[in-house]
Amino acid sequence: MAGVRVVEVAMYGFVTSAGAVLADWGADVLKVEHAVTGDPQRGLRRTGSFVVEGDLNPNVEHPNRGKRSIGLDISSESGRAVLDDLVREADVFLTSLLPSARRRFRIEVDDVRAVNPAVVYARGSALGARGEEADRGGYDMTAFWARGASAASITPPDVEGIITPPAPAYGDTISGTNLAGGIAAALFARERTGEASVVDVSLLGSGVWAMGAAIDASLLQGKPWVAPRTGTVGSANPLSALYRTADGHHLSLVMLQPTRYWADVCRHIDRPDLADDPRFATFEGIQAHAEEAVAALREAFAAHPLAWWTTRLAGLSGPWAPVQDTLQVGADPQVRSNGYIAGVTADDGSEYELVTSPVQFDERPPALRRAPGFAEHTDDVLAGLGYDGDRIIALKIDGAVT
Question: For the domain 240-323, what is the CATH code?
């Protein structure tokens, strides 16, 4: 997307992560921040049990890598004139503001298109662009996780309350990738037809899509989906189960054709005697003797730690995976080999790492750049619009820019 210019009037994690993906793909993404406070996400320093100290804030870096930042008061006339100049040069206008705020700041579709009729107008919302609740805000916890059925589906009936999302900005990041894809499709359509689209993605819509197969089944069956618990004992298929390792971690086996993989598994756990055991020669036999098979597998997997098994099972033909925490994922050789985590250079020359966005082109992971400081590029952006020094100083005295 080199040469594509994006003006982003957004905050927090959802829509800004769409801008981050576009920046990963090479677009020039200009982050327009409140002239005084900036993006409120900059002040978010506690997520779950993690407290961020120092200048490097993952809550800012994750959804804002690779952008430029300008502090701009779009409610003032002089600030709005600057925004209009930015929009004139933009291919995409990207916003998370609610309809009432968009009307107040005069950045609705018609307002922006009056300045640049060819701009792709992209908006992210909590609950969608239509319906009685279109003007309601929300977060991924509410609109994506709770309302979109993930929470109810994954929470066991004997648990008080609900299981919360597994990570901060979980639904935000997924929804942002959806929005970036929609913008890319709209740019492609504009190239083909000359028509600029309005692109809408919501947290609710993304949550419903993520649960789509289960919701489809529920509509057909007339009952809610409840995620089955994955265990070992009692499973008719011992090769579709969890097994505990010596260090308290787990392996997940999902081999839906047990007779196809049984012998190979037995060889990898050093139990070749089980491969030829007549009890497990057929699918019916495995079902009938599932408890015995589970016991044998449980004993074998409990003999070594997860890291040992990860190496040992590397050549196993059936689908399996180590059940990893976030730190283990960071050290996973397969993750590293594919560039799913990459280094970023800070201003002081120090290095840190971020997760890359998931789409790769020509087998190359995106080259990551750090997130901008608040209003870091204001002067450069204004100079790029042709503003001279006196005009920039006047805008700063006026409070229109920071």
Answer: 3.30.1540.10
